[in-house]
Write a structure and sequence with these properties.
Length: 389
């Protein structure tokens, strides 16, 4: 145990029980400091108040049981060996079967081990769970591993090689938690009270060592709130930065937009008209637009994009439309081409599968300004793709 209080930036290697080998294993999964380890949240929590007695299990139910291993060994299957263990809680027993990782499990699970096991109950010569999740538990005298809510961590192959399991990881995090200085909350007490947030100290402790389900829920709520809050702050800062970066204001609406609108064989919905107006207003400002257009399949997002592109072209600039797949790029190309031909706007498509000669011709025309709208995949962001405007 460290003699003095730790800080978030303290290297894990300086913590008793880590050492250079385990430090390298932690580093391989991006954990280098005390803060990194505190932010390595459990993959799930075992609530021991909801543990099921083995004698009262029912088939096709997801359960958690705790018991002692009565027998454990490799078995011969038709094609390969598998590992099987018998778990008993004193009033009933259940068979645990793993077809993968049999040799590793033979070394990891021994007769007499206390296991917490989760999975779906099946019936084959008695109750059984195939490929259950499990965690080794110690005796009730171990306060870190015997609370009503037990955290279960993902253990990487690198950590496994250093003989670090979920139980020993809990102990390490407990050492760090007990040795850390009081963490000042980045939110004021008034802000926390208004938004029903527990203190950050409590959240970081209880995500790992909650004494009850309610404490765990409060910790999860606080940490999720922080994640979303700072993500929104980052997006707001980026938006502010974009607005400070000047660009050409596209404030003209040429005849192309009206030609396309008048040629439609359907009436635009009020929502489409509203969104097109918002996009037009955004494009008329002297900074870049950052917008997400969301709608169900068939709700008319493509025609909104077509009209937005036509507004851009009417302001003497070129437009790039990028799709995640070649199939989607071709679909967009056919849609854009059908509408743009009416307004004498030239479109082309550029994807990874475009033939070399055709690609060279498209790149030349794009650089000369002969192509108004280019549609494609990531092929549009290669170094040799140049626009006139």
């Amino acid at each position: 145990v460290p003699d003095k209080a730790l800080s978030f930036s303290t290297s894990l290697q300086s913590i008793k029980g880590v050492g250079p080998v385990r430090a390298d294993a932690f580093s391989a999964i991006g954990i280098n400091t005390v803060l990194d380890l505190l932010n390595y949240y459990p993959r799930k929590h075992l609530d021991r108040t909801t543990v099921s007695p083995i004698s009262k299990l029912r088939v096709d139910t997801d359960v958690t049981v705790i018991g002692k291993v009565q027998a454990a060994d490799l078995r011969k299957g038709k094609r390969r060996q598998y590992f099987q263990a018998i778990l008993s809680d004193g009033k009933g027993s259940i068979t645990l079967t793993w077809f993968n990782g049999a040799r590793y499990l033979k070394k990891a699970i021994k007769v007499g081990d206390r296991l917490a096991v989760s999975g779906k109950v099946e019936f084959f010569n008695g109750f059984q769970i195939v490929h259950p999740e499990y965690d080794k538990l110690k005796t009730d005298e171990d306060p870190v591993n015997s609370g009503s809510v037990i955290p279960l961590y993902s253990i990487s192959a690198e950590l496994n090689k250093t003989k670090l399991d979920s139980r020993s990881l809990r102990r390490l995090i407990k050492i760090i938690s007990d040795s850390l200085k009081e963490i000042p909350d980045h939110f004021s007490p008034e802000f926390c009270k208004k938004n029903e947030l527990t203190h950050i100290n409590s959240a970081l402790r209880n995500i790992h060592f909650a004494d009850s389900e309610s404490e765990l829920n409060e910790a999860v709520h606080r940490l999720k709130f922080d994640e979303h809050f700072f993500l929104q702050m980052l997006m707001a800062l980026r938006k502010s930065s974009i607005q400070k970066t000047g660009t050409k204001a596209l404030n003209k609406t040429g005849p192309q937009v009206k030609l396309i609108s008048d040629s439609l064989d359907f009436e635009l919905t009020d929502a489409q008209k509203r969104v097109i107006k918002e996009i037009k207003d955004n494009m008329a400002r002297p900074y870049s637009m950052n917008r997400l257009l969301q709608g169900d399949v068939g709700s008319g997002k493509t025609i909104v994009s077509v009209l937005a592109a036509a507004i851009a072209v009417s302001n003497k600039v070129q437009v790039a439309v990028m799709a995640p797949t070649e199939i989607l790029a071709h679909q967009h190309f056919e849609s854009f081409k059908k509408h743009m031909e009416i307004a004498h706007i030239t479109c082309a498509i550029l994807v990874g599968g475009t033939a070399t000669k055709e690609r060279e011709s498209i790149l030349k025309s794009l650089a000369d300004g002969g192509i108004n709208i280019i549609i494609g995949t990531h092929a549009l962001i290669q170094k040799d793709v140049a626009f006139k405007t």
